[in-house]
Amino acid sequence: PTAQPTFTSPDYTSDTRPFGVSAYERWIDVNLTTQSLTAYEGDTAVFTALVSSGTWDYPTVTGQFRIWLRFESQTMNGRLLGYDYFLEDVPYVMYFFEDYAIHGAYWHNNFGTPMSHGCVNVAPTDAGWLYDWASLGTLVNVHY
Question: Which whole-number Å values give the CA distances from 46 to 96, 102, 117, in the listed order?
Answer without folding.
Answer: 20, 17, 27
